[in-house]
């Protein structure tokens, strides 16, 4: 099945509900550890921090791993696919411009899970930003530079 058909099937059934909080995972192209490169990680982090990136919602917490990104995103008046797509496109443009390269940065699709209204959002954020600990990248989350949460 061609990739475009596959990505359409993945989007089928995806519901975007304004005000809903989604846990998003986006993986780099072919799981390339692109964000081991400090310059690339800093570029992606700056874009994630920018209010302009999330103008139709807001990013409550995020962590950038060597080959993927997790975000806890509260959706605004734009659908989920466009909101996440804006973030991914901005990172791709900036990294490709900086490195004078023309390679895909992200897989075309992403994984999302809507949090239930009774879910503990701060617990979800703590779980998300603890990914570097579980992956063995650091012994303390404070030692990992590529994450943030609005509760800090």
From TrEMBL:
SUPFAM superfamilies: Transposase IS200-like
GO BP term (any one): DNA transposition
Coiled-coil blocks: none
SMART domains per UniProt: Y1_Tnp
GO molecular function, one term: transposase activity
UniProt domain Transposase IS200-like: residue ranges: 17-131
InterPro entries, per database record: RAYT_transposase, Transposase_17, Transposase_17_sf
PANTHER family: REP-ASSOCIATED TYROSINE TRANSPOSASE (PTHR36966)
Name of the protein in question: Transposase
Source taxonomy: Bacteria, Pseudomonadati, Pseudomonadota, Gammaproteobacteria, Lysobacterales
């Amino acid at each position: 099945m061609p990739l475009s058909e596959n990505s359409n099937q993945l989007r089928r059934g995806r519901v975007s509900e304004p005000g809903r909080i989604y846990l998003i995972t986006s993986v780099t192209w072919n799981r390339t550890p692109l964000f081991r490169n400090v310059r690339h990680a800093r570029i992606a982090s700056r874009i994630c921090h920018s209010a302009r990136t999330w103008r139709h919602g807001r990013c409550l917490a995020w962590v950038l791993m060597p080959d993927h990104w997790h975000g806890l995103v509260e959706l605004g008046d734009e659908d989920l696919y466009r909101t996440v797509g804006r973030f991914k496109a901005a990172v791709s443009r900036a990294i490709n411009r900086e490195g004078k390269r023309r390679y895909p940065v992200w897989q075309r699709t992403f994984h999302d899970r809507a949090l239930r209204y009774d879910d503990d959002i701060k617990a979800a954020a703590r779980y998300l930003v603890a990914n570097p600990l579980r992956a063995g990248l650091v012994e303390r989350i404070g030692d990992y530079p590529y994450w943030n949460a609005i509760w800090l």
